[in-house]
Amino acid sequence: MTSRIAVELVDTVKPLARECLSDARRLPHLRYADLRLAVTEGKYASSENGTPKGSGDDDALGLGVRVLAGDRMIGPGYVGVTLGAADAAELATRIRDAVERAHRRAMVNAEHKADAREKFGALGAALADTRLHRVEIREDTVPAAYRVDPRTMDLAEMVRYTTDVSRQVAAVDPALKYNAVVTLTQLSRELFVSSDGAAIDQAFALTQGSCAVVAVTGETSQELHDVTGHQRGWEILLAGVDEPLIRFPPFPDFALALAREGLELAAAPPLPSSDREVVVVTDPHYNTLVSHEIVGHPVELDRALKLETAYAGRSWLLGGLTEHQLGRRVASPLVSAYSDPSLPGYGHYAYDHEGTPARRVVHIEEGIFRGFMNSRQTAAIFGGVPNGHWTATDASLVPLVRMSNTVFAAGARRPEDIVREVDRGWYLAGHRTPSIAESRENFRISARRVYEIRNGELGRLYRDGGIAADSRDYLTNVDAVGVDFRLYPIPNCGKGQPMQTKKLGNGGPTMRSRARLTGA
Asked: 491: which residues sit within 8 A by CB, 6+ positions away?
């Protein structure tokens, strides 16, 4: 039988990791070191058109070490290792080896940096020591939340359940030519230990169901895909989620509703484009992607500082250390936006991956830009207090500044009143595909459904369309914000090189603004 890795391994590693980092203080010119270790036990099942497609029961173990060291200057050294069950008995050796390798890399980086600083004059003077902003040092254990332990799920039952959902979807209508249903449930445990004395042990349950459908009517083919999920156990697929901020029906109902929506859209006409701005009302699900793309990514401080310009772009909120929008109006007084890891769902955690206590950071306060998500290093560069947004998708990868739950704040209006006030306009529901400018200064985001609004009532349904706008103009033109705040999972946010695909949360309420329609 194949050896397995269990999350309880962290109990063994915790004292060992602290001992290794205590010993690391003897390394020459070492200024700081930290270690991240993560164990995940997970299961998945998939089905296509009512037939089992695949399933798996797997575990993973990752290790990451960061060292800051140097004589003439201070440089960083990183080592990331993907481990297996055979490495569990040799973890002490693996950890010490990783710390020593990271130290050697840091020393070499520091020497190269010092040489370049001396060689290149004024240009070299731009090079600085790698420093971290001070944070409160914590020791804490954070348990996972679930009613059904993901490890207890029977894989055969998962396959049966997933296949049954796929069969139900296929039976809705012959015009549904294809469907794919995938479920997963997993338990992860993450350990962070630093040479400063931090020791953070966090566990996370996660369960997700996804459904994709293709509906065909005449010559029109309509493809839809959506995901439901939460940091909970299998119970969320069986019973759904009914919390103040997150609401999903049981997974079969979720998938069937998506199938019926696909059929309805396949029979709808394509949305016409407009040559001018029109009144648009956007629902919370659509605003999930708006908050993600034109607020979330631009307020990640590593992006804003141009640390990922070459492969991901910059930020419309920061042109340089002295050319930024801090304290300036970037939106209507009705618009506020923030990132908050304490909110529930995919973006929830208590500490980020350098042990910083996670906290809410306000990005836009009543239209005024207030600040970025950051890390200890980017906070030391730009200023401000670290706010706990430095995370990686695997312990073996270098963390990045990432969204937690980045959202538009709720307003004071009833959504039905926001629509009722519109004589002629458009209502966009659900999000599909974004197309965003290099610095996120303008965007084009398609919706799942677009309805014409006439005399305050929703009218004809259209497909294959969305809106395009300048980001600042769009936010500045917001003249109504609803009370109907909702939080949704984003299962596949990509960032970094190599790419790290992360699960996080976004959301907001109904909002009204102006934009151009982009149709087929």
From this structure: 208, 210, 227, 229, 346, 503
CA torsion, ordered 299, 304, 310, 312, to nearest 10 deg: 10
Rounded to an integer, the average pLDDT of 294-320 is 88
Secondary structure class of 61 (helix, strand, coil): strand
Other CB atoms within 10 A of residue 428 CB: 27
Report the C-alpha gap between 36 and 55 in whole angstroms.
29
- Tokens 């009705």 sit at which residue? 334
pLDDT digits (tens, 9 = 90+) for 343-394: 999 999 999 999 999 999 999 999 999 999 999 999 999 999 999 999 999 9
What does each C-alpha distance from 261 to 213, 225, 462 come to in angstroms?
A: 10, 11, 12
- In total, the chain counts a number of residues equal to 520
Provide the 8-state DSSP code for 152.
Answer: G
> Which among 483, 477, 434 has a CA at the least distance from the CA of 278?
477
Contact 315/373 with Cβ under 8 angstroms? Answer: no
Question: Cα(518)–Cα(520) distance, rounded to whole angstroms?
Answer: 7
Res 1: pLDDT = 38
Q: Are 78 and 105 in contact (CB under 8 A)?
A: yes
Residues 6+ apart with CB under 8 A from 461: 264, 265, 268, 449, 450, 451
Nearest CA among 472, 467, 457 for reference residue 429: 467
Residue in 358, 360, 395 with CA at minimum distance from that of residue 140: 358
Question: Within its chain, how far is the Cα of 303 from the centroid?
Answer: 15
Residue with tokens 């590593």: 302
Whether 389 contacts 378, CB under 8 Å: no
The helix or strand, by DSSP H or E, that contains position 245, with its residue range, turns out to be none
Average the pLDDT over 404-433 and give the result. 97
* Lowest model confidence (mean pLDDT) among 88-92, 180-184, 513-517: 88-92
How many CA atoms lie within 13 Å of 132's alpha carbon, on the beta-carbon side?
23
**319 is written with which tokens?**
């042109």
Planar angle of CA 520, 430, 477, nearest 5 degrees: 85
